[in-house]
Amino acid sequence: MKYLLLVLILCATNLKSLAQGALPDSFFNGKSVVFVSNDPSARPVMGWKVVADSVHQALVEAGADPVAYFELEQVALSEAVQAAFAKAFSTRLIKNILFVTRQKNGSSIHVAPFTGDARMIPTTALYGIQAANLTAAKEQFAAVGQSRESQNLLVLDVPEFINIGTENTASSEKFMARNPLNLDVFKLGIPIEGTSAETGLLSYFRYDMYGKTQDEILAEQAAQKAGIEQVLKQAYPYQIEWLTEAKSEQELIQDRVQFLLVKVEGREADLMRSMGLPVEDAEASSQIVVKYYIKLLVRDELYIGPEWDADPDWRVALASFLNNLKKPS
User: Fold this and answer.
1) Is 278 left (phi over 0), alpha (psi -120 to 50) or beta?
2) Domains along the chain?
3) pTM score, whole prediction
4) Which of 268, 130, 110, 271 is nearest to 204 (CA)?
5) pLDDT tens digits, residue range 33-54?
6) Is 118 exposed, middle or buried (0-12, 13-18, 19+ CB in 10 A)?
């Protein structure tokens, strides 16, 4: 009897770790878009669209109405691209965002209400299913539909991949291939990744980010700050301010922070296109790189510098960008 009770307790604890949070009501009565993040080193080898095709029926069985699938890395490419997607989703009356994350050592499916703005989701503390592999994750998620009747009736039989048209984002955003003025007059705000000052909530569900412990995140943040400080001492002589709390642009400006250092990461060709730059060899530019730019808050202008300086190593990318600030535009 004691053994049976122990088994039941362990099973209950395990189930709790698999499913956390609460599903938004709109999941059962509203359109959803699905963001897929797929680790290319996971086995068996699957492209992100194959992953989407694999999970589609399970999402429908759970009660969702998945109307379109996107690669998460494409959506979370930059603040500007994310805002363009958010605008398109609002026009299409999207109510929910689903995340499918496939890693080498497990897979997860999460559900968030769509905020209607560029943040996309209100928090990373979402209802989610985690399992040892994609097959187990989708089976567990499909079981959600057994407990509640869905109002989503006319759903797609197969996943749909649509083009939102973010290739024109650069024309609507003020990306400038030159350096900003007055860096010596006003402070440069530097958000620390993973804090409330950093807006990239979507990136939390990337295959290379999801599942890190709080201690790991804090250690990475401390190492990141120390690494940035080291680069700044060598290449940036002006005032800075570390940002760890969410503040409005007006609050930042009142604190004499008129510039923000922004870090984006993605395939090099995608980043260049999103910033309005020509891509001569897309295949050669397929590596994942980090690019920094400076945002001028008072005019919402984005300065990417006079030379392309992205690099797979964020320290090299940051040092190159700061050194290019000294060059004439």
Assistant:
1) beta
2) 12-150+159-167 (3.40.50), 173-324 (no CATH)
3) 0.69
4) 110
5) 999 999 988 999 899 999 999 9
6) middle
